[in-house]
Prior knowledge:
The structure holds two protein chains of two kinds.
Chain A: E1 34-37, H1 38-42, H2 48-60, E2 70-72, H3 98-107, E3 111-117, H4 134-143, E4 148-152, H5 169-172, E5 176-184, E6 187-192, H6 193-196, E7 198-201, E8 205-207, E9 210-212, E10 232-240, E11 244-253, E12 263-270, E13 273-281, E14 292-293, E15 297-301, E16 304-311, H7 314-334, E17 340-343, E18 361-363, H8 391-398, E19 411-413, H9 426-438, E20 443-445, H10 457-462, H11 465-471, E21 480-484, E22 502-508, E23 514-520, E24 530-533, H12 534-541, H13 548-553, E25 556-561, E26 567-570, E27 574-577, E28 585-593
Parallel strand pairs in A: 1-2, 1-20, 2-3, 3-4, 4-17, 17-18, 18-19
Antiparallel strand pairs in A: 5-6, 5-11, 7-10, 8-9, 10-16, 11-14, 11-15, 12-13, 12-16, 21-22, 22-23, 23-28, 24-27, 25-26, 25-28
Helix pairs in contact in A: 4-7, 9-11
Chain B: H1 6-18, H2 25-32, H3 37-40, H4 49-63, H5 88-96, E1 103-104, E2 114-115, H6 124-132
Antiparallel strand pairs in B: 1-2
Amino acid sequence: xxxxxxxxxxxxxxxxxxxxxxxxxxxxxxxxxxxxxxxxxxxxxxxxxxxxxxxxxxxxxxxxxxxxxxxxxxxxxxxxxxxxxxxxxxxxxxxxxxxxxxxxxxxxxxxxxxxxxxxxxxxxxxxxxxxxxxxxxxxxxxxxxxxxxxxxxxxxxxxxxxxxxxxxxxxxxxxxxxxxxxxxxxxxxxxxxxxxxxxxxxxxxxxxxxxxxxxxxxxxxxxxxxxxxxxxxxxxxxxxxxxxxxxxxxxxxxxxxxxxxxxxxxxxxxxxxxxxxxxxxxxxxxxxxxxxxxxxxxxxxxxxxxxxxxxxxxxxxxxxxxxxxxxxxxxxxxxxxxxxxxxxxxxxxxxxxxxxxxxxxxxxxxxxxxxxxxxxxxxxxxxxxxxxxxxxxxxxxxxxxxxxxxxxxxxxxxxxxxxxxxxxxxxxxxxxxxxxxxxxxxxxxxxxxxxxxxxxxxxxxxxxxxxxxxxxxxxxxxxxxxxxxxxxxxxxxxxxxxxxxxxxxxxxxxxxxxxxxxxxxxxxxxxxxxxxxxxxxxxxxxxxxxxxxxxxxxxxxxxxxxxxxxxxxxxxxxxxxxxxxxxxxxxxxxxxxx
Amino acid sequence: xxxxxxxxxxxxxxxxxxxxxxxxxxxxxxxxxxxxxxxxxxxxxxxxxxxxxxxxxxxxxxxxxxxxxxxxxxxxxxxxxxxxxxxxxxxxxxxxxxxxxxxxxxxxxxxxxxxxxxxxxxxxxxxxxxxxxx
Lengths: 594, 134
């Protein structure tokens, strides 16, 4: 492939991201996936023998009965290059092949998951990415009986992703634009970016007389909020008396770095809809400040008001197209929409906007740990760090992303669980697990299950049925943050990264009850008693609660502590927690008494 | 001196371990688990620094039995540490142990800015230096 997809179908365009429609092959109505993934436990060192041992352990520990169904091979399982154009098993680690392993996993009553990438290579290096091989890879996955596919984003050709050429930024940002002229039908219009341009969305800016940073910003790191516009456009309003053909010229400068690229999308919005007139690279200029005049681009304007849109949404569109192409092939070959697609592009292209169309979940950030384990080494997890590793960083972003999740869409994925890794004490593990349950995150275990014994502390955490029931509640609503000691005005929307705080989350449940959790993000005990009124909780989530009136008008409530199982009846409307341990949590299920 | 090849680097590590050349050190290292299958593919390519870090990290873990340093936050002085998500731990472990050095950014490293320079090729001289620190 020498250039990105030609997008002929409007449903793959940015403008369709908010239409709520999904593509063929995407099944709606699924709850968050539960299972075990090899990466956090064994990294690239996973083997057939280890995978079988994990499947056996899932059954022995009774985890399958609790919903942990998927056993997923992550990176490191393929031969480093294709064999006769096809994917093949790495023969030292997976000597029996994937079909045999798949049959074994299925014989345990479990589901079989695998891994690949939309780039040319997998992240660990094997040159077997799906890019350009979607059809043959789909045949392989169907023939192996794969139920779940996690698809990464390394070596991607159309973005400056991990291991990709950094100059791929040329595809993801528009050139800098200083001026636009539109001529035709006896008229000529001159639009200067600084004087006439309308900056739409986010990120785009005027500097030194030109508009720059026209594209979608990178969400891999934790620096930016996931809420709101993720991209920007430069727009001009052009009102004409005569409908017809016009010629548009740009004064522009290109680059191949974040913020300035070579790919331009040009569309015109008018009363009749949107028409695209250019979606391609512009000729390269000598530098990012070396402005030149483009050739003529033909556009069509309607009588009256037209909005000329200069933009580049290709970062999102290309990535969507890559995932959609793979899903489409799998759907065509399998004839079903049963395969679960786990999008793992690390939040880079803001998949909260488009992921629901093809995927069941989408990662929201770079990895939760870079210190994965190996056989005999549990690996290392952290509570917090200066980048994405750690429970807190992933939580901080996911907790305000509830608007993007749901049964009709899919789930925000703050990465796989680190319960059981070194570096996290049991209190942290409990809170980590409770957070993921409240946020409807996929529950993918990432530890060597041979280290877990029935009834031990790790087992009690990962098998807490009351918490899993929140995650798997059929209403399928991610919890909303209704209070934070660090919030200014909107606890449900503010992106808060200072972990010196306690958050309170609330989640409506199908039986008309509500789950309320207190999470102490800080590294010290929170001595101050905290409370939240049920009226406040209902003001955030009441509209999604079945039988809200019944809940609101109840005189008493039964509070169940979801860790101890203790129940008590309260008659007031205040839900309290005090003495929260460092990194600790309290979780209640609150049921109205008739 | 020229640039180091992946196969030569593995062979030299194998020699360090065994005290002598093996018949097929790359295959042997793969069997022992301190190189990846990807290293057997095009093993005659030039060794880059991120691959060197991965192989050395595998070597010190599996051959030398070293446990990972649990806290790698000190490695975040490398401005490009997170550019390669799979390399982070490998780079952190070899840099924090002093096996591989950070590289300076001309003009600004006096202000504390350093990089690992993932894709830079490893010279035979640098490979010698890395091996001498094991």
